[in-house]
Predict the 3D structure of the following.
Amino acid sequence: MGVNEEKLASLDAEAGQAGSGLSTPPASADAVSRLDRWMARKLLDVVGEPPFSIHLWDGSVVQPAGGVARFCLHIRDRGALFKVMLDPELHFGTLYSAGRIEVDGDLVQFLEWSYLGLRDAGEGSAAARLLKWINKRPRRNTLSGSRHNIHHHYDIGNAFYALWLDTEAMQYTCAYYPEADMTLEQAQVAKLHHVCRKLQLKPGDTVVEAGCGWGGLARFMARHYGVTVKAYNISHEQVKFARQKAEEEGLSDRVEYIEDDYRNISGMYDVFVSVGMLEHVGPRYYRELGDVIHRCLKSEGRGLIHTIGRRKPGLMNAWIEKHIFPGACPPSLAEMMDIFEPHEFAVQDVENLRLHYAKTLRHWLERYEDNLDTIRESFDENFVRAWRLYLAGSIAAFTTNELQLFQVVFSGPERHDLPWSRKHLYE
Amino acid sequence: MGVNEEKLASLDAEAGQAGSGLSTPPASADAVSRLDRWMARKLLDVVGEPPFSIHLWDGSVVQPAGGVARFCLHIRDRGALFKVMLDPELHFGTLYSAGRIEVDGDLVQFLEWSYLGLRDAGEGSAAARLLKWINKRPRRNTLSGSRHNIHHHYDIGNAFYALWLDTEAMQYTCAYYPEADMTLEQAQVAKLHHVCRKLQLKPGDTVVEAGCGWGGLARFMARHYGVTVKAYNISHEQVKFARQKAEEEGLSDRVEYIEDDYRNISGMYDVFVSVGMLEHVGPRYYRELGDVIHRCLKSEGRGLIHTIGRRKPGLMNAWIEKHIFPGACPPSLAEMMDIFEPHEFAVQDVENLRLHYAKTLRHWLERYEDNLDTIRESFDENFVRAWRLYLAGSIAAFTTNELQLFQVVFSGPERHDLPWSRKHLYE
């Protein structure tokens, strides 16, 4: 523990908040000093003077330079103010989760303003660090590291996810809204068809899926496109759920769920597909993933990888990487090419669906808020607030162009039977 | 001139062929030795035993290991045999152009067999050098270098290109065949619409085009989509032609052709477009191109780059780079990202149209052969054969997956008005 961290820990203890994770704490009884107020002003300056007022723990208010405030940021003790200035990437989320920072007004819009304010403030500046959520040390996704990291997120309970994901296929990835008024269920089904059409699935094809979630895509492909699927996943809870569903739906003869790492995929297939796993792989393992695809995909085969991405290389927000998605890192397209180029896979199609993910997340957040009573039966307020921030922050990241969603279609070196247009995706 | 080159020059002189460039020379009167025959055998071996027989200059034949020959490769003197073994990338084209190597049978299919044979023979082997057409030293595309390089190819006469390009828009880039039976003219118009739709052009938009050829796209955009265009090109002949056409068609008020390098683009635009220029830019200049786009494209603007590409980084065939396209180098997608990622442009769409370029080239080659009498009035046989090989070799490169054709749509960091689906491209 470094000196700064020690100091912060003592401030935490003072605020009675270290790791408590209970409901919103009372404001600190400390007097607000001139330094405190200077820091609050500085905070607004660094975020590019957004329309936020900052309410300190004694009730005093720092107004934005522009005058009218659209959001109030409540900072409830000195430790919170110091921490958010010191390492905002890491601490904003923790402080918000603990209720030591609160936001009056639409949380998504507040986060969008923060993103845009920081972007305008420029890159090289100290401002760029604030809330920009970049971390230098994501956890390693070795075989055992991945198992630990995935367990952290995906094994917290299928029932929890079932409360706010779609009821159709339990998809925890970006849906596809070709029509504006689609429900979440319709958009997830549209996504599954979009993926299957891009892969040109035909009856009898053998498919391997890397990172299959609760198995929705695998069952969908088998049922609607007549293929057989081997689907890999290292989340024990998800695989258990997926197997039971396949059993219930009479698909067990065509869909096999394997609780194992993508690096252990065996066999040869016509099609490789992976929807929402690459975020957890980490760029340093992309060549290895390419080796796996090369080993298991017929040379005339084809594949699709669907992943959150970035406009340039960078790392996941430190707080999300620490508390929500250990080891996660969305790639830039150049980074993704490390999967394809060493084995000369040909990229056929890339589609960026970032606005679709913002819309998907809005649907999720809405259902999440609608089910708070049930969620609170199993989780404490710290968890509830952390997940709200994660969902709202993700919406803001997609609407403000911080994050992208790439679907990349590729083919083996010997594939020449290519469609002459992409019209078939839209019929 | 190195030792090997000296030796080859003396062999050339012996064969009476050094730089003659006239019609097919007579076969050498030299006796064929055991070494000659061994080398011919080795040649077949290196190309992975394709169904070629090799006919040497004394009439003796080396048959393929497999037995039945579908193509005869005539090698008309010892110098040709030595040269093609020594540096096939560079010399096959020169020897074929000079008539010292000839091919009986379909030239495109012969070249396809050669590509595929070499690929099967494996990468690390000496075989990979043969005909694989990789060169380590493309010419630099500095401001003056580019002008020289472009002059070499594009200023050999508009009349020559008019003989075999489409009559509709004189497009010297990949056409688009969404329907199989389209004519070249229909497919080029379809390509122009495809590009304009991907750019979501609307009346009043300001467009800058980098590398405009004979100006067909610029006029098409102005006429059919109501935009104004500034189009840059360093080929004097092309710009002269383009200006005259715009004048004739009454488009001079909306289309301005500027004889200058893309690095000197000035002004601010809604749209950046470049079709078939990137091949001539060279990967080492991609960051600079990105800087140019960043400087001239509004932050909410959008753009499209259409280029020949590769599945992984590599260089142009040495013979083509030397004799046809000085300085040319088709990029891999990872290389292209050097244009977009440093300025955080967001890639929205990538489409690979490689089979469309094979089809386009077939149409060009057919018209080229139909117009040989006219071409021979202005060019010697060496030129005629060189261009035949270039067109046929390009077909083979696209059909065998050696080359790709990428259309990449991107948008400025502040562009949020994105289409919800690509359906509008297909209506």
Observations:
- Chain B touches chain A through 42 residues (CB under 8 Å).
- Residues 143-426 of chain B form a domain with the Rossmann fold fold (CATH 3.40.50.150).
- Residues 1-5, 13-22, 130-137 of chain B have pLDDT under 50 and may be disordered.
- The radius of gyration of chain B is 23 Å.
